[in-house]
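hey so i finaly got around to running the thing on MaoC family dehydratase N-terminal domain-containing protein from Aquirufa novilacunae. pasting the sequence first so u can double check i didnt mess up the copy paste, my clipboard has been acting weird all day
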Amino acid sequence: MEHNERIISEEVCSLSAVRKVASMLDLAPSDFKKGDLLPRGWHFFLLSGNVPRSEIRSDGFPGFGVPIPNLGLPRLVLGGRTVEFLGDIRIGETLERTSFVASIAEKESQAGRMAFVKIQHELRNQQSELLLNEVQTFILLEASQGKPVLPTGTPISQKAQAKKSLTPDELQLFQYSALGFNSHKIHLDRTYTQAVEGYPNLLVNGGLASLYVTEFLRTQCGLQLVGFQAKHSAPLFCDDELTLLANPVDAQNWEVKICNAHHALAVSIEARVNG
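ok and heres what it spat out for the 3d tokens, dont ask me to read them lol
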């Protein structure tokens, strides 16, 4: 199968799934009803891969939703994502999802061989209107040769027009992973994460970090997203406090930073909003 073949599937934005997302975010599930608009950023469960258990990678990652060639790189992390909200998804509606490999680029670095894999997902309604376009960038790496070098980073200014601190815990990592059918062991299996990958604790899902931001902008800042671009520069760990810092660039653009427990930059997000 060609790695750029388009995979088309039918996905349902079910009320049950939406209410489970609300529960995970500590919101009242009953506030969300069939026919309501899905909050922008909650679509992650519609993009999960459907991979048979026998085909799951050794690290537990359930796949990209599309086939890619075996590159001989056993470790995987999320490098970033770009999301465009071109319309609204209604709770209860049936959608057509098109997924494909946008590009694969291999390179050599001081850390060894790596590959950057871009996976593109498109969601359309029954009228064939494109509602959402998302490109996820994954980084594939060679096997860990001991503990990875994890610099704490240089603390950055914590001044912001809007600010929020929170602490992801093991329960929320499990709930988010379950809703997105993501069985990657770095989010669920502490023994694997420490002994095989060499990290000190479970890693916060990259998608969960993005959801923190989209919810922060929606609820605390009162903004409607048009799209965003996220870049992950350092891992975030379970049970470590993280801080969201949001500042407007202009009427239609905001810059959001997620800082780790050492107040160093871990994720940077450029968000476009309705002015």
